[in-house]
Design brief:
Layout (H helix, E strand, L loop, with lengths): L6 H17 L2 H10 L5 H9 L18 H13 L6 H15 L2 H11 L5 E4 L15 E5 L1 E12 L6 E7 L10 E7 L9 E7 L5 E12 L4 E2 L6 H36 L1 E2 L2 E2 L4 H27 L4 H30 L9 H14 L4 H12 L2
Parallel strand pairs: 1-4
Antiparallel strand pairs: 2-3, 3-7, 4-5, 5-8, 6-7, 9-10
């Protein structure tokens, strides 16, 4: 298989990389997170003007009609720059759910995502569910409008969201895949609507998230996305696409971490020579490189399988998640150790990258979860 990028894909990589190199400053990014905003709106507008936000969205909805490989390229460059703006939340997950649900309203919002004006956040996880997104206890019942009751946790992107996409059960038992519906509602995090309680916080990797409690939350009848009770296929495919994107983000992070670590060991001296000359440390950095190369291959596999049939997609995505989970831990921990105590300081970039790598290991399920899923998919 030829993994060489086309001229258009290489131009996309160069454009995103150049934009971030010129305009994305790590210190400003961390300051924005700690200030309460949680992001830099001007960066988001710049990505929209560059058409990065619309690359993977359908042409009929204002996008460029790109596919998973273009998404992989973008996610990797965002990872290399440690971008906290909600690309995966808003574009990959939000855009993916809207695209797969269909309908006139979905098309309008996809255009808004491409323009940088719409930022959906997906409220799916619940206190009892872990990473099992079809374990849904939140309910939605018809009373002229829809009335939603339940609790959602770790909803990333909420503090900067313009819309919520909420999964709720309209039929069936708690862990049934059938009976789950999606509801789209406009949302202002600064002034939550009646019936919604929001608890905001910052995650370990400097992202913004919130827990949401719905108590008699009334939404219009047209808030339903797609067909009632048949949302699971769209959710499952979209989360796999998000895992593939995060795997590519991790590759970008690990490339940067390894480059910085090699550079540091060439500068740091002990006994009058650079520590990069020590054979034991050379062996360790070679092991880090091997983990990185395996992760690159796994991320490619996941990206190519995003549009495959469900069992093949599940195998490729879960294999990538297991491979990435092992590599993020190995590369992250060794890079910090090779930097010494400086590796854990706020002033040095490596500490911030390490926190994001640690979060990715468990995001969308742990390695154990995905190993079990991989085994199950081979039996289907």
């Amino acid at each position: 298989m030829d993994f060489t990028f086309t001229d258009e894909q290489q131009m996309l990589r160069d454009a995103v990389s150049g934009f971030l190199a010129a305009r994305y400053d790590l210190a400003k990014s961390r300051a924005a997170v700690k200030s309460g905003l949680g992001w830099q709106p001007e960066i988001w507008r710049g990505l929209a003007e560059l058409d990065v936000l619309g690359v993977t969205l359908p042409e009929e909805s204002g996008g460029s009609g790109g596919g998973p490989i273009e998404g992989m390229i973008i996610a990797e460059e965002l990872g290399r720059a440690l971008v906290v703006e909600p690309y995966v939340d808003a574009v990959v997950i939000g855009g993916g759910l809207l695209r797969r649900s269909g309908g006139e309203r979905a098309g309008e919002l996809l255009r808004g995502i491409a323009d940088g004006l719409v930022r959906p956040a997906f409220a799916a996880l619940e206190p009892q569910s872990g990473e099992v997104r079809h374990d849904v206890a939140t309910t939605a019942r018809r009373d002229d409008d829809w009335v939603i009751d339940g609790t959602k946790i770790v909803v990333t992107g909420v503090p900067v969201a313009t819309h919520l996409i909420v999964s709720a059960r309209t039929a069936g038992e708690r862990r049934d895949q059938d009976g789950i519906s999606l509801f789209l509602v406009e949302f202002d995090p600064a002034a939550p609507p009646a019936g919604v309680e929001v608890h905001r916080y910052r995650t370990i990797d400097d992202r913004v998230a919130a827990d949401l409690t719905f108590a008699g939350f009334r939404v219009p009848a047209n808030s339903l996305l797609g067909v009632a009770g048949q949302a699971w296929a769209a959710i499952d495919a979209t989360i796999d696409e998000a895992i593939a994107a995060v795997a590519s983000e991790a590759v970008g992070l690990m490339r940067k971490v390894l480059d910085d670590t090699v550079e540091y060991t060439e500068q740091r001296q002990q006994f009058g020579v650079p520590i990069s000359s020590f054979q034991a440390l050379q062996h360790r950095m070679v092991d880090m490189l091997i983990e990185l190369e395996q992760s690159i291959a796994a991320a490619y596999l996941a990206a190519y399988a995003v549009e495959a049939e469900p069992a093949e997609r599940a195998r490729a995505v879960s294999a990538a998640k297991v491979t990435i989970g092992r590599a993020t831990r190995f590369i992250g921990q060794n890079s910090v150790q090779l930097h010494g105590a400086m590796g854990m300081t706020e002033e040095l970039a490596i500490g911030h990258y390490f926190k994001r790598l640690t979060a990715i290991e468990y995001e969308f399920g742990s390695s154990s979860d995905h190993l079990a899923r991989y085994i199950a998919s081979t039996k289907s």
